[in-house]
Amino acid sequence: MKKLKLSILISLFTLSVHAQESYYGKFATNTNPANSWYKLAHIVINCSVNTVNISAEVNYVGLTGRYQAKAIMMFRCHRTGGEYANWQYNVSGNLATDVLKLVKIDTKTYELLGFANSQYAHVSTGLSVTQECNVAITMHNTAEEVSNVDVLEDIPYSGSWNYPEGKVGIGTLAPDREFHIRNDTGIGEMVLQGKQDASSGNGARIILSSAYSENIDQTEQLGRQVYLQAIATANWGSSVRFDISTSDNANILPTPRFTVSPEGKVGIGTTSPAHTLDVCGTIRASEIKVDLQGSCGADFVFKDDYKLMDLKDLETFVRTNRHLPEVAPEKQMLEDGVNINELQIKLLQKIEELTLYLIEQNSRITEIEEENKCLRKEINLINKDLFFEKN
Questions:
Q1: 317: phi > 0 → left, psi -120 to 50 → alpha, else beta; which?
Q2: Dihedrals φ, ψ of 85, to 5°?
Q3: Within 13 Å and on the Cβ side, how many CA atoms surround 198?
Q4: Sign of CA dihedral 338, 342, 348, 353
Q5: DSSP label at 87?
Q6: Each residue of 69-111: pLDDT tens digit?
Q7: Per DSSP, what are the bridge partners of residue 162?
């Protein structure tokens, strides 16, 4: 009979090891100082392999503060002796500080701690434990302050959410905006992932709205939005473009105004830019600087070996073709557009050629004027001789 009872007890113990168990504890802090840490739950992992998952809910009410915190803790043991603990928690309330700590006492023992900012407060804790091995949980029903919390081995939490006074924080317990993401180990990141399938046009979108109603899909609210969106341009999202969309009509949905293609080309007024910067519209600038990037200027015109077209040949070309040599005709410019870099250099070349023509013409004019002076002198001498002969 004793063997049968022992067998039943062993069977019940084995079942409880793999079942979900609940634990509760509560205490008051009315005899302890404010701004202190207290023991909530004592956790001992009695296994060499498998995992223990613990969900915790902590409710705190003090004279000057309150919070509700929920935590998820996962403990993993390995037969080689390695242990692993990971946890995360979220909190709501009006305390802009850490309110839970998970500390490691030794290789198998952990303590869940709670923060109290008031000398007079009530703390209640509930645990839900799902285990694959034996675990011993001791809940604290009297206030037991931890004075040396800074020397204990703190298990960093892998994530946290905080939303005091309607503000949401991820990675911070003191969000100073409605939505605040913080990462103390590197770049803070947020991922929005849309549907992927064998078609294009899917993606992800952030909507910035100035609508006066919570229903931004009302007709009169449609255009009061700005879209920041990533749109798949190929099947399964293998290439993605980025758009900024706006609307100039409160009743019409935003349309793309600014686009960055998968190749890094920027389009303004077009969603399919063909050049590094493709603008469909008018550009206004106080200054534009064109980098020649290895192309030459037009000063070769002034070199001694440069062959300037004869003016007579230039006249014939212009009368025949109705445009300057080496400059594209109007029809070609209308069809193909204009390369500003090439056109500016070509126009400068024509100006420098015109300068040479002017210099050449000025030299010829100077020669003619000198010849005229000589002819006037000769004419004056001839006139004098004729006058004396008559007299």
A1: alpha
A2: -130, 135
A3: 0
A4: negative
A5: E
A6: 999 888 877 655 546 688 888 888 888 678 999 999 888 899 9
A7: 91, 169
